# Entry
Amino acid sequence: ASIVWEKNLYMAAAAQELGLPIKRLPGDDGGGDEVGGFTIYDGKRFVFTQSSSWWSLVQLALRYGPSPLLYGRHSLQVWRNHFHQIYELQDAGTAFDTPEQLLHTTGMFNLTQTSCATHLQSFLAQYWWSWGASAFAQDLAAAINRCNYNQGNAQLNALAGLVSFLPAAAGEIWAVKGGNRLVAEGLLRLSGATLHLNTRVTGVTLHADTTYRLRVVKEGGGEAVYGPYDGVIIATPLEFADLSFDLDQQDLQGQGGAAQDQQDLGEQHSSSSSSSSSGSSGSSSRSSTGGSGGGGSSSSQVYQQVCRYVKCKRSGGRNEREALQ
# Structure
């Protein structure tokens, strides 16, 4: 991210802990260390240009009406009443097995099931006296979403659209002097972790001793196996990762019980693989034993296998069926 909203508590705390200098950017209150503005181009002409003159405000009101204020207030309400709960839950040590559980708990799940375009239209339509809603959605909201996420209103879900608009609604925005990447670099340095650059992970293997190995391709094409590891975090959309998984059922049975049919893992994941705010679609991932064809494991199946193993391990090695109960 090139900018950070002032209510992003984790980024603010990290920058402070690392002692990184920040620069305030022009925000809703017109303050900041730099002079800024924006111009909206609809593909054919410049439809609006911000300036410090009173005429710029008049043009903004004539073209978009109260829509920016209404949608901005709505985005702030969602943040205060729902999104902010995430900080409180994590401070309390609360964790969730799936993104869907987090979204249901915070009351934001429904916002991930409709597009930003649909939500914008339905929300602003309830204010019959408002004008400029269509122009606001097509010009201002779309430009912000394109700038932040490189997606249009129709491709972005409603929750992401509201979060995207928050810096424009209220508060200040800032950036780390020298680049926000200094935050990630500083946190990595503090963690003491070993970073392997120019190394692509191609597969994850679960062994009978309940540890994982990573198959990687190094720069220049050389292959290697890293590990063992107690756990593996895949911080990328699974359906686009092109990873192979060897989570052999015999290894899972080695925990001390018979394997349970995948269908018994719970119907909760059968139709929810596309409902997270990241927009995963549950497309097939390549399996190390079955390739990318009919014998391959889908991302949902791999996810279920991982959940089965984690639950079994949490049970202290008891029978897999007992762990699921």
